[in-house]
Write a structure and sequence with these properties.
Length: 204
Amino acid sequence: MFRVSILCVFFIGNIIAQDSIAIKRILSFQEELNRDFASEETSPLPLKELEYFKMLDFFKIDVSFCVQAKFVRTSYETPFIMKTTTGREPLYVKYGEAHFILQDKSYVLNIYQNQGLKMQLEYEDYLFLPFTDLTNGESSYAGGRFIDLKIPDKETLLIDFNTAYNPYCSYNDRYSCPIPPEENHMDIKILAGVKKYKKSPENK
């Protein structure tokens, strides 16, 4: 009985430690994103909006939206032009699939690789996960959100919806953004990540 109690304490302690690491990672993501938005050099905000910017609005951190997905590499996919909010025609390829369970539902999301970006050294391992969910148009941006990933070196992949962010075109019309493919729609509310942006009262 004593041994079982020790194991339970160890198990609970391990979960708490993992949650703590996840929270620190998410907070770091939020801080970096806020820094980018606050800087005139890196912010997608129009200058008039940047003048009043303080910080982005995030859903409350929820580690239940950190999921370990099974990664399935899909080789020999045909490159295709992903639809965008403008006439731009970026070339993508379906790189793989993420299989996971969230809120007792099974999901398979397609993960893409930008064929132009992969030629750049800093993006050679970059993968792109665009998705839509039932919060779109209400508490999150109507056009869906994105998650940045890297090519995994194993058969699992961490997908943290707390790091889901809005495309730049949701802040500024001068940007052209990919439109999440229909097959990446999730029929639940992803209450994590960046919320819908609200313009400052002065610029409405």
